[in-house]
Amino acid sequence: MEQFKGQPRLPKFAVPKRYDIRLKPDLSSCNFSGSVVIDVDVVADTRFLVLNTANLSVNTSSISFTSRNRTFQVFQLSKVEIFEDDEILVLEFEKSLPIGEGALAIEFDGILSDKMKGFYRSTYEHNGEKKSMAGTQFEPADARKCFPCWDEPAFKATFKITLDVPADLVALSNMPVTEEKVVGQLKTVSYKESPIMSTYLVAIVVGLFDYVEDHTSDGDKLYRYFATPYSLPKLDMVAIPDFAFKAMENYGLVTYRETALLYDDQHSAAANKQQVAIVVTHELAHQWFGNLVTMEWWTDLWLNEGFATWVCYLATDSLFPEWKIWTQFLDEFVEGLKLDGLEGSHPIEVEVKHASEIQEIFDAISYKKGASVIRMLQSYLGAECFQWSLGLYIERHASSNAKTEDLWAALEEGSGEPVNRCLGTYKDLYVKIDKWQSHFLASGSHGDGEWIVPITLCCGSYDNRKSVLLETRSTTLDIETRIGGEDDGTSAICSWIKLNIDQTGFYRVKYDEDLAARLRDAIENKYLSATDRFGILDDSFALCMARQQSLISLLTLMAAYWDDHDYTVLSNLIAISYRLERNAADAVPELLDFIKQFFISLFQESAEKLGWQPKAGESHLDAMLRGEVLTALAVFGHDPTLNEASRRFHVFLNDRNTPLLPPDLRKAAYVAVMQRTSAFERSGYESLLRVYRESDLSQEKTRVLSSLASCPDPNIILEVLNFLSSPEVRNQDAVLGLSVSREGRETAWTWMKFASTEKAEEIEEFFASRRRPSMARTLKQSIERVHINARWVQSVQTDEHLAEAVKQLAMQH
Fold this sequence. Notes:
The record marks 367 as: Transition state stabilizer. It is a peripheral membrane protein. Its main location: cytoplasm. InterPro entries: Aminopeptidase_N-like_N, Aminopeptidase_N-like_N_sf, ERAP1-like_C_dom, M1_APN-typ, Peptidase_M1, Peptidase_M1_aminopeptidases, Peptidase_M1_dom, Peptidase_M4/M1_CTD_sf. It is a single chain. By secondary structure, the protein is an alpha+beta fold. 38% of the residues lie in helices and 22% in strands. It has 23 helices and 29 strands. An 8-stranded mixed β-sheet has the order 5-4-8-2-1-11-14-13, with no helix packed on it. A 4-stranded antiparallel β-sheet has the order 9-10-15-12, with no helix packed on it. The protein has a 4-stranded mixed β-sheet with strand order 23-22-21-29. Strand 22 and strand 23 form a beta hairpin. Helix 15 runs parallel beside helix 17 and helix 17 packs parallel to helix 19 (698-708). The longest helix has 22 residues, at 776-797. The termini are far apart. The model is unreliable at 425-435, 482-492 and 751-756 (pLDDT under 50).
């Protein structure tokens, strides 16, 4: 049996075909009992069956294997062993199992833990009484915590589930109910057998639920796009109070954190509505990408998550075109670039050796870089060709598994383009205007590598476009310097050049000083699209943090956006301002007031244009922008904003339905209140706690939690941290309060926020004896980020011209 220890994958001499599972959860004692009969196909000579189990008490005397070849022969076990570190159950039989089908029967018991993994419990209040429910979260590898199974994506099977539950509760699973029998206070619920699927997509929910119901026709948007119908007879969507992620795409039973599904017209902000739309469409996209066609192993997780991220924008844009959601996609694009710029990053295909490593790759590379690469491919290949190729991919691999090369093959067949050669190992890079490429690293160094990159550019006008495949480290492209053809007096000189039109290419661009100055003029004169204005700003910020561009050059560029009112552009400008304010506080504290005043000047124009009160018929984007701009002004200490926010908040305290503080403004008001809270004047903090405790809406609670730690008083920050760890705050929500104010960083585990080499060394020393596979990659990335910030701080401190330039910018604006 020792030969099976330490192996990254289960052996394949036997494969499951069907599971017959029966579970009986006890919500009062927080445990469950169960049994499973697994139809197994023995495909190679073996005396062993090896499958996964974790945190289960397996009744070894109940285990039996019955061959179904000709006679129903029962095979005797000679040894049973559970290797806890590897989460495997090894069954050794007295003689070899016959090739062909057999049935493996096992009984077991388990704990309904509060860890939000496996089969777990969640709590809620109903009519003032605390109650429990049970739910499942099996992705990536926790079905084994509910029943013994072959818990890998490639081992697909069908599932027949039966539940014994309290008669007054709702019990849901992947498939519709076929039979329900009530005996006393218990009922037995049987479900239709599922189509073939992976174990991580099995789901069970037991609790007290209200519901709304509707039906869709076969003309569903995703059905039409993929040319393949949804393959199950129903799709339940359930909000669970305690939930580790935003949502989980379980086949036919999608589960959500409450904030990601529930929307209230009176108390949800426009941003909440958009979040719900994005998350729901993401999970529905998974019903095709992930559930119907499943990655063969977690190495190809991006096939699931990258496509679901891209498709959710496609679907949301179809439903709400006025949201301009593809411009907002740039937020995903930027997060992918940020992580990909670290030396501790990884390709979209990443080797996974052990189940403990899987969770770490649910990151911005798999989701956001994956989606960005897909967007780049669609732009390069053309929307129609790309859609047809995806349909071909789904048709070929439906109810089966696929790898990245299978997708490349379908795209190459549909387009005739060398997709695999272009994108097989695509990494973040930057392109200079002279058509030279280098692997971009946020540390400021240059990585090795050479990629085939689709380059687009326009010269002086979007009508004057060119494109080229950058196939080597450098190439030459002739640029027409005049618009209008002949130099006959009717043409115009090309006044600016923009690479990566609409930011469809997953790369950064570095311009020389002259071209950068021309682009600033183009931004001020509104010649560029919102996506291109966004891209120029974000590339400049990344290059500044990598010490390839000065801080004053970045601030000068930011000044060109002072009257930009596009939601996505201004939202990114705010995010960059937050980062710079934090780092500048360490680098040049004597200039901090000037920097804050400069940032305030950037946002005042939009704040005045939007005003405090929502306007009749205003856009969804204006509603979101108002909240973000006012929050930024509060963070940077704009007294008029702080005064008005505080006034409105105190009215709200006495009347939670007042029109003076609609949901879109509450975050700004909460932050403003905490900005003026201190150990000597704590009424604002106590009032916010009151709002938290009196609300039963998860979105309201998260707004409060994400505002509390903005207080500048370290003593209050300590109280906030203690509150976050109290039973009043759900485990999954505590992290929302950890983004503390600059003044509170030392109190809130200083190494997480400090930009100093000493702190990076302190982190490494602390974790030297605490490293685990499940956190190794994340820890390495975190330490790298601290070093990057530290080097940036040092470089800014040596800039002799910075002080005068910052003061001039602050006075000019």
